[in-house]
From TrEMBL:
The keyword Transmembrane does not apply. It comes from the Eukaryota. Residues 3-156 form the N-acetyltransferase domain. One of its GO terms (molecular function) is N-acetyltransferase activity. This is N-acetyltransferase domain-containing protein. It comes from Didymodactylos carnosus. InterPro entries: Acyl_CoA_acyltransferase, GNAT_dom, NAT_camello-type. It holds the Pfam family Acetyltransf_7. PROSITE patterns: GNAT (PS51186).
Amino acid sequence: MSIEIIPYQDEYKEEFQQINYEWLNKYNLLEDYDVRILSDPQNTILKNNGYIYLAQDTQTKQIIGTIGLIRHDSTTCELTKMCVKPGYQKQGIARRLIERCLKQIREQHPEIKKIYLCSNSLLKAAIHLYEHYGFKHVQNEPRHFATADIYMELQL
C-alpha cells in the first residue's frame, strides 16, 4: 500500500467529513464546533491561512486520514481533526500527517511560535503520538470543546 499526503481540495470534502464524524461519534465527542468546522472547512480553516492535509491511498484514491491547522493569531495555531481510518491505523500515517503540518509551519510560517491542541483522554494513541512530537500537557485552559480534558502545546 502506498500513501501520499496531499493538500485538501473541495472534491474531498465529503470524505473529510465522513472520516471525522466517524471517530467523533465513536467516542461520543461530536460538538457544535466540530460540525461548524467540518461543514465549511474553506471558511473555518483555510480562509485564514490554515491548512488541511489528507492521507490518500494512491491505489484506490481513497482518503484514509486527515489533519488540520487552524490559524488563531499571528503566532498561534491549533492542530485539529487528526484521524486515520481504523483499517489503516498503526502504519505510521498519523505520524506522516503531523510531520507534514510541522514542516509547513516551520518552513512557511516562522512567525508561528506555538501550536496547541485539545483532545480527550479516551484517545490514548493520539496523545502518545503528540507527546512523541514534543507536545507538552498544560493546565486546562478554556477552549471551544466541552468534551476536551487534555490540552497540549508545542513551543516552536
